[in-house]
Design goal:
The protein is mainly α. It has four helices and no strands.
């Protein structure tokens, strides 16, 4: 995306499309593509911030795009948190069965007191 000039409207439209794709791939639990899309969306936001003028964002069309993005952002954040929590729980379950940290209980019974 670097070096290519887009209008503010084009950037917001691309941002909306990437946001829709984020929802699609988080629903499919395709985390690798999801993370790549997060990076792309961040690049679009940086390009928007660098624009000298933000006239489109204040137009009715710009406001509608942002209004469309807001609930999708909330849903993405909710699903990302849920996925992260599920991933942490799975990781903890795997670690609880980790043999390298397992201390056999038999050692206690083999001692002479």
């Amino acid at each position: 995306m670097d070096g290519v000039r887009f209008s503010e409207q084009e950037l917001w439209e691309k941002y909306l499309e990437v946001t829709k794709d984020l929802l699609k791939f988080i629903n499919a639990e395709d985390i690798d593509i999801f993370l790549e899309l997060v990076n792309q969306r961040q690049q679009l936001m940086e390009m928007l911030k660098k624009l000298p003028s933000h006239e489109f964002a204040n137009t009715q069309a710009g406001k509608e795009i942002r209004k469309t993005i807001e609930p999708m952002d909330r849903e993405i954040m909710f699903k990302a948190r849920s996925w992260l929590n599920k991933s942490k729980r799975n990781n903890m379950a795997v670690k609880s069965y980790d043999i390298t940290s397992f201390v056999p209980a038999g050692n206690v019974f083999n001692r002479e007191y």
